[in-house]
Automatic annotation (TrEMBL), chain A:
Keyword Protease: no
Coiled-coil annotated spans: none
Cited SUPFAM superfamilies: Cupredoxins (SSF49503)
Domain of life per record: Bacteria
UniProt keyword terms in alphabetical order: Signal
Protein name: Methylamine utilization protein
UniProt xrefs under Gene3D superfamilies: Cupredoxins - blue copper proteins
Naturally occurring in which organism (per UniProt): Sphingobium psychrophilum
N-terminal signal peptide: 1-20
InterPro entries the record matches: Cupredoxin, ET_Amicyanin
Amino acid sequence: MYYLRLAPLALTCLAAPALAGDLNLKLVDAAGRPVADAVVTVRPAGGIPPGPIRFPWATTMVQQNIAFAPHVLVVPVGTTVRFPNKDKVRHHVYSFSKPAKFEIKLFGQDETRSYTFTSTGAVALGCNIHDQMSGFIKVVDTPFAIKSDAAGSAHLAGMATGTAQVTIWHPLLKTKDNEMVVNVPIPGSGAASKTVPLTLRSGR
Amino acid sequence: MIRIAALKRLWRRTVWRFQSTLTFRMTLFYGALFAAVSMLSLYGTRKAIESYAESQIRREMTVGSALFDRIAAMQFHQLTQAGNVLASDFGFREAVGTNDAATIASALQSLQGRFKIDHAMFVSIDGVVAGRADGLSVDDQTQLFDTLDAGRERGIVRWRGQSHMVAAAPVRAPMLMGWVVFARNMGPTDLRQLAKLSSIDLHPQLVPLTGATRRSTQVQEVDRDGERILSWARPVPALVEAAPQRLVLEYSLTRALQGYAPILWALLGFGALGLLLAIAGAFAASRRLARPIIALEAAARKVSAGEHAQVEVETRDEIGRLARSFNRMVTAVEERERQIAHMAFHDSLTGLANRTLLREQIALALHRHGGVDFALFCLDLDNFKAVNDTLGHPTGDALLCEVATRLAETCPQGFVARLGGDEFAVIVQDGSGAADQTGRAIVQALTRPFTVNGHRIVTGGSVGIALAPQDGQDATSLLKNADLALYRAKHDGKGSHRFFENAMDAEAQARRAMEVDLHDALRNGELELHFQPLFGLSQNRVTAFEALMRWNHPVRGMVSPIDFIPLAEETGLIIPIGEWALHEACRIAMSWGDDIRVAVNVSPVQFRSSTLNSIVLQALARSGLEPQRLELEITESLFIDNVEATLASLHSLKVLGVRVALDDFGTGYSSLSYLRSFPFDKLKIDRSFIVDLLANKGATAIIRAITTLADALGIETTAEGVESSEQLDILRSEGCNQIQGYLFSRPIPAADVPALLVKLSGSRMAA
């Protein structure tokens, strides 16, 4: 712990301000187990750089095997997400979430609808036919957004040096709007590593 | 007061007597036994009932508890179902998802009405409670949320003092948005509905389990206002883990037992009835048992009072045997009594009646109605002592038996009794004055010789007769008088019979009085010696004095020795009197001249006593008198009984040096043989010969014969009772040595002796 605190301080002092830094977060639950599907968004010290935001993954939410795939999808604001039905049964996708309230009735196989998300925030998807189906679309306005992998790791690079506002969201996080904010100093060069313990609601 | 005390005492005694009876004790024992058994069975029954009731209640409690569980499960299920219906409704989920509070509240209200639910709420994931939550305090709401958030969705909870069954259903849209919470009131009314389902009212109550009420989950018995109550508190699933709830079931054991009270009362009643029956039965049985014992007791009482009694033998059991033994015992005792009575009233030797029975017979005859005259004969044998001494007691006894037989033969109508020893008595009815003949017949019968044990025994008997009623009004006086007559008969000569005369009685009494006085006379100095001189014709002076006893009775005056000497001899008083006389005579003689002797009479009784020799020696030694100056006068009668012994005694006296004179010579059984056998110093010619001297020529011849004989044998002679000088002349001419009589002097007191000696020496001059 001692070194962990000292190292970023030293890096901050030594690095040049124009240089960009990385962020390595490790997300664990109260028991120390890795937490997957948590979305990490960062607002760097210098603010969000202008320009369109592009992520290296598809903006598609597939319904396959009576489930949403992927379970959590991160998209930039203004993205139109396609909802293809790859099951033989019908689905009735809905959302009561504030950023996007909609219903898409997908009655046919391989039928695809889409919806354009114009507000940031977390959108909980359900199927009115299959209660057990659950999926989330996290609409963000920053290029620095990633969802944790199965090992609970989230890696972001190229952020401005200085204190970054890191927001962590998870559907079971026991906080308001299921998200929490931590400030992490980003070094001029190298990576700021941090392990963040999350208090999760039991999976129901 | 006294009467009340007496009544009390009487009552107490009656009670005590009853209490001490067998009947009472048996009745008490069996009564108490039955009462104890009844009480025991009553107690046992009560215990059994109590135990049964308790187990019933326990079973009902188990059933009631299970029932509660079932109903609770059902209610929870219903509530959950209802909650799920609402929670899965798309519209409701949309309302929740869009936080449409109005829609949520209306939906809750609608469903609450449809399912008849007391409380319907929505608790959001943020802890906000919507819907009919007005009854819940903030604490309750917080607690509810925390519980739901912790994952508990059903259970019993206490809100505003009332228990509620709560079930929650989660609302997902699609994320968990909150919970629909339905609650149903489980107040006393609702629980009473539940109670109606069990067969007894267990008063089910749901109460919070606080520290004070935390108790064991076992069924417990508690006392509440004197009522015994069985109480069971068991935990129920609570919604809030920190506020555990329990179900309390109660039932009053007292009330349960009240239901059985009639049984116990009936048992008590039957027990009391049984007790009465047992007492009555025991009383009757013990009476039956005691009746023969009472009869035995009464019979024993009669027997002890001397009556004859037998009890009736009714049974063959122990009491019957006792009765039989009792009867046998009474018979045996009576037989023995008869034997004892016979022994008491009869003489064992002869079988005749004894003195006691004789007295009874006399009394009976005296009191017999009509007052028949009868004669009482008392008799004894004349020589029985000699028979016993010479032939032995067995022969003596056999002789008495013979006498008894002979008396019975002689007086076949009479009542014969043996009084003891050789004394017998006969009672004969004397209507015709035949007592004299009977008396003679008895004497004759006894005179005939007896043959006993090969011995021929000649005895005789004397008979005294008393006639009733004139000779005595009772047995004592009749016997005494007959005895007096017998005494007279023996006195007058044996082998005769005498009738009682009143004089005999007076004489006997006088004798008795004299006997008593004589006893004291010697000690009181009433006896005195007088002296009569013996005048020696050849010496022409007084050669001796004869000492003669005088009794100066303080009342009667001088008593003649003829009157008291025989009495003294009879009673044996003659021994001390004679001793005294010897001592006194020797003492007085010492005051006289050496040529004057003193003559002292010795009674046959005295003579036969073994002490005579020593008494003579003592008298001589104490006085210092020379033996030859003492002259002992004995009578012929000594030779009648035992010549040999008499001679031996005389010789031993002679050895002492004293002189021995034969008194009253010529009367009685005068035998010349003993003059030859013993060297008498002197013969005293009886006064009867002297009196005859002047009237009868033959008397002179006898005197002469005596003096001649005496001279020839070298024996002195003394003439007694000389009163005239004519007599003196004849005696002098016939060669008599000494003269004694009133001619010279009557007996005089010792003090007058010197004067007399002087006077006689003067008269000698004159003669």
